[in-house]
Amino acid sequence: MKIAYVFDAIYPYNLGGKEKRLFDISKNLSEKNEVHIYSMNWWKGKKIKKENNVSLHGICKYYPLYIKGRRSIKQGIMFGLSCFKLLNEDFDVLDADHMVYFHLFPAKLACLLKGKKFIITWNEVWGKDYWINYMGRKGIFGAIIEKLTSKLPDKIISVSEHTTKNLIEKLKVNPEKIITIPNGIEFNKIQKVNPAKESSDIIFAGRLLSHKNVDLLIKAVKIIKENSNKNIKCAILGEGPELEDLQQLTKKLKLEKNIKILGFIKKSDDVYSLIKSSKVFVLPSEREGFGIAALEANACGIPVVTVNHKDNASKDLIKKGKNGFVCKLDEKALAETIIKAIKTSSSMKEACIKEAKKYDWSKIMSKFEEVYRE
User: Fold this and answer.
1) Number of H helices, E strands in the chain
2) Per the structure, how many domains does the chain have?
3) Which of 97, 100, 310, 373 could form a disulfide with 76 if both were Cys (CB 3.0 to 4.6 A apart)?
4) Contact, 76 vs 97, CB < 8 A?
5) Do 204 and 165 belong to one domain?
6) CB 35 within 8 A of CB 89
7) Predicted model pTM
8) For 326-343, how does the pLDDT look when each residue is reduced to its tens digit (9 = 90+)?
9) Structural domain that includes position 8
10) What whole-number distance in Å separates Cα of residue 341 and Cα of residue 297?
11) Which residues of 230-267 are buried (b: 16+ CB within 10 A; e: fewer)?
């Protein structure tokens, strides 16, 4: 098959769960199929190049994804307009990321004109309430576009049962149009990585966005330092619009000796290495469509602490006391749960790895081929 993916952000140029997901899927599918990814021009040089046997097409110049901590409307519109170039491309099936919606209309048109099937990968559903909370009154237009685009595809690939439920309940998508295929991890690759020499008690890895609540983690570290362990060590990996604020908060709370904000780490093996040398992975995010980071942490042999929020699908991956803990979205509760996880971390290692192994890509990839071949 000739498979076309349309995603505005791709790994390793932008670090994120869905970007890593596409990277792994496309690399696996390219062994038997011709795979093309249409994105922004994240790299320097020619607009078309090959990486890991996958053809990357820079159909639009790079625009920042975020402006002042929010997704850029300009970026979405410019990428959407660039997707009219798909009319000149050849493919058997087209799979597009649902964000940031504008590109889905030209993608649908290209499929209609070519008589091809149109698939949308849906990571998370925002719904009317979240849109209004995110953008104020203008959010109603975002909610309308989200619901409208959910009617465009022939099939929706949902990354979790949580997202599937929201597609049906919030966007009123016909359940027969949805197939749920969970995200996976490169389990065997992670097992081969050695722990880093420098260790930490707590680690977070992900994009530094407001809904990730990394500030809550920093405040929890302050509580632990004052009440339990003055030498507590925390590593924060990632970049994003919240970076400067998090650095200032760390300084304000006088935690420079306890918290290291390491920023962007290009190689995934280096990230896994740092996770393996930690005792607990903390994901205080209130919005996760799936939670790949939690699975990768389990594969590294450490438990995960996440929060109980209706939009956080990663909590569904956690079995209390087995591969992690779920707590309230509160700095005190987070601190108490982290202490509990640190104390039991070594005894949970085997169970964490066992749970993560269920999501190895080798057990999942055939489901994608089945959907595309239909």
Assistant:
1) 13, 16
2) 2
3) 100
4) no
5) no
6) no
7) 0.88
8) 999 999 999 999 999 999
9) 2-184+361-373
10) 13
11) eebbbbbbbbbbbbeebbebbeebebeebbbbbeebee
